[in-house]
Amino acid sequence: MCGRFTLRGTNRVQDEYGVELDPNYNLAPGQKIFVVSRKIEMMKWSFSPSWASKPMNLINARSETLHEKPSFKGSKRCVIPADGWYEWHRKDNKKQPFYFHNDHELFLFAGIYKEYNDENGCALITKKANDHLANVHHRMPILLEYSQARDWLNGEDVFDSTLSDKIKYHPVGSFVNKPSNNSEACIKRL
Fold first, then answer.
1. How far is residue 18's CA from residue 137's CA, in Å, rounded to a whole number?
2. What is the pLDDT of residue 94?
3. How many independent structural domains does the chain possess?
4. Residue 113: CATH number of its domain
5. Cβ 183 vs Cβ 2: under 8 Å
6. What pLDDT band is residue 1 in, cutting at 50, 70 and 90?
7. Domain limits at 73?
């Protein structure tokens, strides 16, 4: 699962896409996030199938059932630039947040989106965590190199990027638990 992420490397976003963004240390579900599909746009991180009578607000979609679940039929593909994400490890009734990153370099999450009530909403695609990351959380987002983005957008299932093997992580404080906290303190190593 991926419930929060960072996009701090906004200079690279500007170089790659010509868009100026403020750095964000705590992007949360329901917020508008920067998304690239056939066009560039800000999109709500909250996916609902068009047939749903009320919003489902899905934030993740499992790669293993992406093509089977009725919720995701007819969805379109997108990529979401990021430079890190958070997972919470539960132990003895406590939840410890961890920050995952690739030496703070920009990468892409694989995503899907669909229009619901005249607004596009998206979800991140997840998979079973690799051995290196599974001791914190059993799921992880699908990470894409820039060279793989076109394949994903063109319909290829790119679920096994070697980028996942390069990910590092460290524990962070509970400051990140509040979505309105948006500063470097969110990623500070404990």
1. 35
2. 92
3. 1
4. 3.90.1680.10
5. no
6. low
7. 4-187
Region of residue 75 (left: phi > 0; alpha: psi -120 to 50; beta: else): beta
Question: Active-site residues: which are they?
Answer: 2, 87
Q: Where on the phi/psi map is residue 145: left (φ > 0), alpha (ψ -120 to 50), or beta?
A: beta
139, 152, 165 from 161: Cα distances, Å: 15, 11, 8
Query: Cβ(112)–Cβ(76) under 8 Å?
Result: yes
CA distances to 11, 32, 76, 144 from 21, in Å: 8, 12, 24, 21
Average pLDDT over every residue of 170-178: 97
The reported pTM is 0.95
Residues contacting residue 99 through CB under 8 Å, at least 6 positions apart: 6, 84, 85, 86, 169, 170, 171, 172, 176, 186, 187, 189
Q: Residue 4 corresponds to which tokens in the numbers above?
A: 């929060």
In the chain, the amino acid numbered 53 is S
